[in-house]
Structures are given as structure tokens and as C-alpha cells.
Amino acid sequence: MTAPPSRTPSRAELREHLVRTAIAGDVATSRENNLDHYRSLALRDPHYLFGLTFEGEWSYPDVLALMSEKVGVTADPGHREGADTIDPERTIDAVEEMGERIAKVLRRAAPRIVLATGHPTGLLTVHLALARFLAENGATLLFPAEGWAYVGGLGRRRQIRYLDGVAMLEDRGTFVHTHEAAPMEAMLADERPDFVIADHGWAGAAGEAGVETVGFADSNDPALFVGEAEGKIAVAVPLDDNVLPRFYAPLTAYLLARVARSL
């Protein structure tokens, strides 16, 4: 077994770091943006569903109540503008649960895992560290539908490309931000993994297909939390998903240490 990074923060140290770097606590995502996305999900706007379908009604008040419970945003519907929050304790609890899920998968013989991110300027660094750790600890990283292309929003041709085991969308030589579920749907049609670690539509499409899925989601991304509530997503970790990449290092170390202790 490969050891996690030598310097792992304590829970208290990680909590302080999350708040100081605005990964949690008072985050950059505005209240107006959060509420707009909750309304859009309640109206079943496909852009905000991340490839998921839901059995429940999930009205706007339902979504707000769930996000208050799972993420820690302000529960008061009268708070309509300004700042909003992510509870760092909820973030750490979910990171720990994610670690337990990953360890359970690694205890299988050569589990087949897919990693993917729609956040190449933020969460990519977490996924890259996870990919290295998984490969070093017996997992088989899959590369399904590599090079698969389609015409996405604004008529741009995009294709699936992997960087060190992590799938992303590439557009004319640049990795791009995406909410879309179609790329993961193409990957699953090509080869079905045992486990997925992802975000946005990459995670939603995998969970919808019944693949065990854990992922990261911002306070304005309610779909994965609704998916978690309905049992389609195993774990959704609430955090700001686009701070400076180096700020995620302590969270990544804490997650990998949790996995290592549980193997």
C-alpha cells in the first residue's frame, strides 16, 4: 500500500483551512446564484439536472431545505441576495464518508474505476492525486470512449481526453468547464466501471446509470445532493469547486489519509 502525503492536517486544521481559503464557510458563490439554480432544478431545466432523473417532486422549497441540510446554506427563504455559506463540518463529514467508500472499493480485487471532472481549473488537482493513489493501490483506471467527440453548446466540437487517468472535455487544445452528462453517457456505453469519482454531469450520468458514484459539488449544484437523497449518488461533498488549485491540497491529503487508514 502506498502511504498518503506525510503531512495530513487534523480535522480542526482542515476546518480552519477550508474557511480561510473559502472552500467552505463564507464562499464566493452568491445567494442569488444559489437560489436561481435551485429554482432551475425544481423546473427540471436539463442544464441543472446533470443527467439525473428524480422520483420526488423536489419543489423549490424542497431543494432549498435539502441544501440547507446537506450543504449548510442559509435556510431562510427570505435571504435572497448577498453571501451564502457552506458548512465546513458538513464538508469534512462528506470527505470522510467519501474516503470510506473509496477504501471499500479498493479492498476488492483490481476494481475498475473512472475519474472525470468538469473543473479543469479547480478540482482537477484533487482528481489527479486520487488517480495516482488508486493506481498505486491496486485499482485499474479505465479510459472509455477516449477521443469520442460531439457538438456541444454554442456549436463547438468537443472530445473526451484523459490526463493521467482523469477524463475531461477538450476544445481546440483546451480543457473546458462543463455540466454536460453526454460524455459520461458515451463512456458508460463503451465500458462500464465498478466505481466513479467525478463532478457535475460526469457524476450525475454515472449515478443515473446505477454505477456507484461519489463526487464533489458546489452550493449552486443541487442535482448531486438530490441524487444523493434519492440514493443515486453515494456521496456528494459540498465545497467551492473553483478556488485556486493549490488550496485543495490539505483536503486531498485528509481524504487520502482517510482512505489509507481504512484499507
Helical fraction: 40-55%
Q: Which range does the strand content fall in?
A: 15-25%
CATH architecture: 3-Layer(aba) Sandwich
Residue windows where pLDDT falls under 50 for at least 5 positions: none
Rg over alpha carbons: 17 Å
What's the CATH C level? Alpha Beta
- Kindly state the mean pLDDT as a whole number? 95
The DSSP helix count reads: 10
Number of β-strand runs? 11
> How many domains would you count in the coordinates?
1
**Main β sheet profile:** 9 strands, mixed
Q: Which structural category do the helix and sheet elements fall into?
A: alpha/beta
Shape: globular
Beginning-to-end CA distance, first to last residue = 9 Å
The CATH topology is: Rossmann fold
N-to-C SSE series? HEHHHEHEHEEEEEHEHEHEH
List keywords for this structure.
Phosphatase; nine-stranded mixed β-sheet; alpha/beta; two-stranded antiparallel sheet; Phosphatase_SCO2771; 263 residues; Rossmann fold; 10 helices
